[in-house]
Amino acid sequence: MTLMMSVSGVRGIIGETMTPELAAGIGAAYGTFLGGGTVVLGMDSRPSGEMVESAVKSGLLAAGCHVVELGIVTTPGTALMVTQRRARGGIVVTASHNPIEWNGIKLLTSQGRAPSANTAEEVFSLYRDQRARYQGVDRIGRLERDLSTNDQHVAAVLRVVDAAAIRRRQLRVVLDSVNGAGGASGRMLLEYLGCKVTHVHAEPTGQFTHPPEPTAENLKGLCEIVSKQGADIGFAQDPDADRLAIVDNTGRYIGEEYTLALAAKFVLGKTPGAAAANLSTSRIIDDIARAAGSGCIVHRTAVGEANVADAIAAHRCVIGGEGNGGVIDPRVVMVRDSLASMGLVLNLLAEDWRPLSAIVDELPRYVMVKVKYEMDRKQIDTWLQRIRLDPHGGKTNDSDGLRIDWPDGWVHVRPSNTEPIARVIAEGPDEESARTLVKRVADLR
Ligand code: MG
Fold first, then answer.
1. In the predicted model, what is the mean pLDDT of the chain?
2. Can you tell me the mean pLDDT for 159-170?
3. Domains present along the chain, CATH in parentheses
4. How far, in Å, is the centroid of ligand 1 from the Cα of 74?
5. How far is the CA of 213 from the centre of ligand 1 (A)?
6. Cα(214) to centroid of ligand 1, in Å?
7. What is the per-residue DSSP string for 51-83?
8. pLDDT tens digit string along 347-387?
9. H-helix or E-strand containing 397?
10. 341 a catalytic residue
11. Interstrand relation of 326-328 and 319-322 (parallel, antiparallel or unpaired)
């Protein structure tokens, strides 16, 4: 199964499933769905980017859209341009953190958000049933280039942080852009903020120097550089620069859950309010919200970026995101954004003056255990029903599978959107207690 069509877009392998026919078809389907109008189009730095982007562009033009080409830009940058250009939608050609063989097509709505599952499905069904409408010569789309994305994105982040305070701190930062699309704007932001930047894997070649998912095992090199240089912080972006992982001043990879935790600590400390996170995100954010004051409620959502963005809009949250290093600051854009994340975390450092390691050590520490079981949808539903009948006194939330919260930890069981598997995530104060929670639900299968 090398073609994936899900709420996070289409992903396939170059030379196999990610073909020009598919890309043009999806472009035309989305253009038809939008009924023409302006569509902004960005791409990450993969070598296959031009091939896929050209085909998507062709499909959009054929459906009568006015296409604004942004060139190599980030996903959050593209989302920002959707709103800046008052476009009807946006498309990013990216396979996010997948390896170089892959490329993909991500859709963005007129609000610069990830589409809902229903919208995505409607577009895919237009494609599958070949119902996209090609316009005649009088209504065919035209092309325009706009190279201002990075400048506008950096300016948008600078509006929400205290740049003067960060500049005074003269932070030493190592940035690993994994040869993706985020290097240019990431560096620009850090330099505006007066940071001394060591930029590694900076060139947007798409020849990823290490596997591009910003996980601990892939960022050993970054950890080494940070500790060798005695830097204050290390940042790692994924290829489309929506996710951000952090290395502290001791060269320790602190875990992607802490990106949202630190950003939320800063934002809620300044402007107490509501926050949003999906059900699989660590409880640290609840602890941070509780410490920030009584009005700071965390709204939990089903897994999927669109659900988090919906909750942010519905509850007027001041911050939101996912535990995979994906932070959404609604003042900047309504998608996960590594630039906003960097700005917020640097602002926290600038105001705290302690080293990052001290700030992180003060936050609660939990251990998460993730397990998956091969099961079909029917088996998963029966299993969930059994767990629901016996939640061991926990508080249940069934907006996406089932999450049960106890005073000492939680477990979340949900069917995967793409594969016949059940995902189980448990979190507790240590590994043993997290495994006990997994076992508590696994025994009911
Ligand atoms: Mg990504």
1. 96
2. 98
3. 3-149 (3.40.120.10), 171-362 (3.40.120.10), 367-442 (3.30.310.50)
4. 9
5. 8
6. 10
7. HHHHHHHHHHHHTTEEEEEEEE--HHHHHHHHH
8. 999 999 899 999 999 999 999 999 999 999 999 999 999 99
9. strand 395-397
10. no
11. antiparallel
- Alpha carbons within 13 angstroms on the beta-carbon side of residue 386 total 12
| Spatial distance between the Cα atoms of 19 and 438, rounded to a whole number of angstroms | 41
134-161 per-residue burial string, b: 16 or more CB within 10 A, e: under 16: ebeeeeebeeeebeebbeebbebbbebb
Please return the burial class of 432, using the count of CB atoms within 10 Å of its CB with bins 0-12, 13-18 and 19+: exposed
Going from the Cα of 289 to the center of ligand 1, the distance in angstroms, rounded, reads 26
Euclidean distance between CA atoms 423 and 372, whole angstroms = 5
**Over the stretch 71-85, which tens digit does the pLDDT of each residue have?**
999 999 999 999 999
Per-residue burial over 348-384, b = 16 or more CB atoms within 10 Å of its CB, e = otherwise:
bbbebeeebeebbeebeebbbbeeeeebeeeebeebb
CB 186 within 8 A of CB 238: no
**One-letter amino acid for residue 5 of the chain:** M
Query: What confidence tens digit (pLDDT) does each residue in 232-288 have?
Result: 999 999 999 999 999 999 999 999 999 999 999 999 999 999 999 999 999 999 999
Residue 401 φ/ψ region, left for φ over 0, alpha for ψ in the -120 to 50 degree band, beta for the rest: left
Query: Rounded to the nearest whole angstrom, what is the distance from the C-alpha of residue 432 to the centroid of ligand 1?
Result: 31
Q: Which two tokens mark 52?
A: 């896929």
pTM of the model: 0.96
Q: How far apart are CA 334 and CA 163, in angstroms?
A: 22
**For residue 295, how far is its CA from the centre of ligand 1 (angstroms)?**
31
Q: How far apart are CA 429 and CA 409, in angstroms?
A: 7
Query: Catalytic one among 8, 45, 96, 338?
Result: 96
- How far apart are the CA of 338 and the centre of ligand 1, in A? 9
